[in-house]
Amino acid sequence: MRSRRALLVLITLLVSATILGAFRLVPIDSFALRTRTKIVVEDAVYFNKDKPQEVQRENATLFSLVRNEELDGMLSSINYVETRFNKDYNYDWVFMNDQPFSEQFKTNISSAVSGRAIFYRIPEQYWEIPSWIDKAKMEKSMDFLANEGVLYARKVSYRQMCRFNSGFFYKMPIMDNYQYYWRVEPYIRFECDIPFDPFQMMRTNDYVYGFAMALLEDKKTIRKLWSTSLEFFETEHPEYVSKSNSLKFVTHDSDDNTFGSRFYNLCHYWTNFEIANLDFYRTAKYESYFRYLDKTGDFFYERWGDAPVHTLALSFMEPFDRIHYFANTGYFHNPNVDCPQDPDIYDKLHCTCRPAQSFSPLPWSCSHRFLLADEAEKAEVAKDNQRSTVVNGE
């Protein structure tokens, strides 16, 4: 009996040593032992899950810029995204923060996602206020905007976020692993099923950008953004303007169809939901545009948002047929929802939003303008093709 017990003890010790040896090179915490392996690579912490091999996935990730105190809101968003879409695909989810993520945040979030959760701390140089910003001027500008009733007028962190989302998030090394991203913010909802893979749609149709809602920007926050953009695209780099651009979405044209005669109508893609090809931001022309904007300091002196920055870059540099409106998702971001109006679509996608409350038909929505401008552009292309056929005698 004793020899049998001794043998069992010896076997147990050997098995334990083998297991410990297998994990010797990988840092492990108690949560990882229960569920996943925790691997520290540079500034990123990965929580790995086995992914079903039979699922065809694109080279893509979900992406959230989020703080520890937004845990409840992020968990709510994850629930909607997973239930309506990602449970069938198990895409990675990259979480970024300018502060270290708490263990509570990582544990709860990792348990909620179906794929791999990746936590990345943003290096200070990409978040902090640049040394060349005149802080006295910034304070004075914030006071001015506050007196005008501008939302987030005094929030420095909001300005940092907008600047980061305009010119830095795609430069984080962790994003080098992906071609596409889908941005998700805390407390958003998808109130309809998404029975297809938007990432696959982006790739197969060669889209560079997708959105769910478009609306008007507060002109008090971007007083000089349009004129600065015109300087860049008209004077500095006219070669960056695509011949088949999508400027009709953002401009009112006069009879004289030159850059200077165009007036920004304040329409922009609402970037709290965006699905995009990261290669668009990685181009020299986008980088040059961002740097030109950044050197003005108006991400801080005014309150330039990443939404109009992305929108204007796309409008000058990309045609309509590379930008896609993701309708019928039931997407909600306070205070707006985009809800299907067609009863058959509503029922088929198991929607729970209220069609009567949909944002798209409202006067301050620009979604309808995008569709109209897109159709107008297609009509012009068709006419040009017809003329070409007649001229060439075909």
CATH topology of the largest domain: Spore Coat Polysaccharide Biosynthesis Protein SpsA, Chain A
What overall form do the CA principal axes indicate?
globular
Hey, roughly how much beta strand do the residues contain?
5-15%
Main sheet record? 9 strands, mixed
Helix and strand run: HHEEEHEHEHHEEHEEHEEEEHHHHEEEHH
How many structural domains does the protein architecture include?
Answer: 2
Q: Which structural class fits the helix and strand makeup?
A: alpha/beta
Rg of Cα set: 25 Å
Low-confidence stretches: 1-42, 254-258, 387-391
What is the CATH homology-level superfamily of the largest domain? Answer: Spore Coat Polysaccharide Biosynthesis Protein SpsA, Chain A
Brief digest:
By secondary structure, the chain is an alpha/beta fold. It has helices spanning 2-22, 30-34, 71-84, 103-112, 135-147, 156-167, 198-204, 225-236, 278-281, 284-294, 298-301, 306-317, 343-348, 367-391, and strands spanning 38-41, 44-47, 60-65, 92-97, 117-121, 180-183, 189-190, 209-211, 214-216, 251-252, 263-264, 267-269, 274-277, 323-325, 331-333, 336-338.
Give structural notes.
InterPro entries: Glyco_trans_15, Nucleotide-diphossugar_trans. The chain has 394 residues and is α/β, with parallel strands linked by helices. It has two domains: 27-121, no CATH class; 130-173 and 188-384, Spore Coat Polysaccharide Biosynthesis Protein SpsA, Chain A (Alpha-Beta Complex). Helices cover 40% and strands 14% of the residues. It is built from 14 helices and 16 strands. A nine-stranded mixed beta sheet has the order 1-2-5-4-3-6-13-8-14, sandwiched between helices. The chain has a three-stranded antiparallel beta sheet with strand order 7-15-16. A two-stranded antiparallel sheet has the order 9-12. A hairpin with a 2-residue loop joins strand 1 (38-41) and strand 2. Helix 3 runs parallel beside helix 4 (103-112) and helix 8 (225-236) runs parallel beside helix 12. The longest helix is centred in the C-terminal third of the chain and has 25 residues, at 367-391. The termini are far apart.
